[in-house]
User: Which sequence fits this backbone?
């Protein structure tokens, strides 16, 4: 079992014209629902999700799509 970590940066704490935070809560729940996800936390200062997952079970593309499906816009990161 290989545990990896990825960071998913977003452009704002809200989606569209809404600022209630429900989209963040939904995104955390969506990420935690995937098999292989070990831990999810959100860093409000850096505006990013930190996701630990088993790479043999899930991958970053699926995790990014989960965040986007909650209405949040992902900021491309370059490592």
Assistant:
């Amino acid at each position: 079992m290989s545990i990896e970590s990825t960071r998913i940066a977003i452009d704002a704490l809200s989606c569209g014209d809404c600022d209630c935070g429900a989209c963040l809560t939904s995104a955390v729940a969506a990420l935690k629902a995937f098999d292989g996800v070990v831990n999810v936390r959100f860093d409000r200062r850096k505006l990013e999700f930190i996701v630990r997952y088993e790479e043999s079970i899930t991958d970053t593309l699926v995790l990014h799509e989960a965040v986007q499906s909650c209405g949040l816009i992902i900021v491309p990161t370059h490592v």
Q: What stands out?
A: The longest strand covers residues 3-9.
